[in-house]
Write a structure and sequence with these properties.
homodimer, Arc Repressor Mutant, subunit A, about 60% helix, DNA-binding
Chain lengths: ~80, ~80
DNA sequence: TAGTTATTTAGATAAATGTCTAAATAAAAA
DNA sequence: TTTTTATTTAGACATTTATCTAAATAACTA
């Protein structure tokens, strides 16, 4: 849960999630959407991955990233228990 | 949304939320539950308040804190749109 | 094989964060 | 009014974080 909240606590990472919601994208395509260096985006992707919010698959030279929404189930339940 | 994610990105603050889920508590009662100084807890409470996750009411010398779950509606919707 | 392209790793740095102690403020009690 | 109790504010400090540039790695292309 800690890694999940940490991953979500950044506007850039939340935007990456929004992008991946629309379609799978490789690291370069994701980086293009931001005024942030590729290494920094790579770092954000790693944090999202560690939180299991995204998965990656090597495709030739590219690394394709996909959103994993199943982990959000935990968060959803956490919130719902707070609301009783 | 930023303040909300920020507020949730800390184990102590999430525990404070869990405590307030059970019942309203004043600052001292909350601080008692942790091995953290009162000023630090006060600081956590302020961050939760800024995120509108809790409200406070002065009662004599005490300040009573309550959980505000309505703000979680936004978070809930954010998650649900990700899950399509 | 040599060069190009895609991505990550390494290392540095500035800013943000969580924590502390000491001091300030506010209310109650003596 | 003086003292005690509850809480917050101020300031300091160590750690974490987001970012960068330069270098390394991996895979395609000529």
């Amino acid at each position: 849960m800690n890694a999940l909240f940490k991953a979500l606590n950044d506007e850039t990472r939340r935007q990456i999630i929004e992008l991946l919601k629309k379609k799978d994208m490789n690291a370069g395509e994701i980086a293009e959407q931001f005024n942030i260096s590729k290494p920094s985006i790579s770092h954000h992707l790693e944090i999202l991955k560690r939180a299991d919010l995204i998965t990656s698959e090597k495709k030739g030279q590219f690394v394709e990233y996909s959103l994993n929404t199943s982990i959000l189930e935990d968060l959803l339940n956490w919130i719902l228990t707070l609301k009783k």
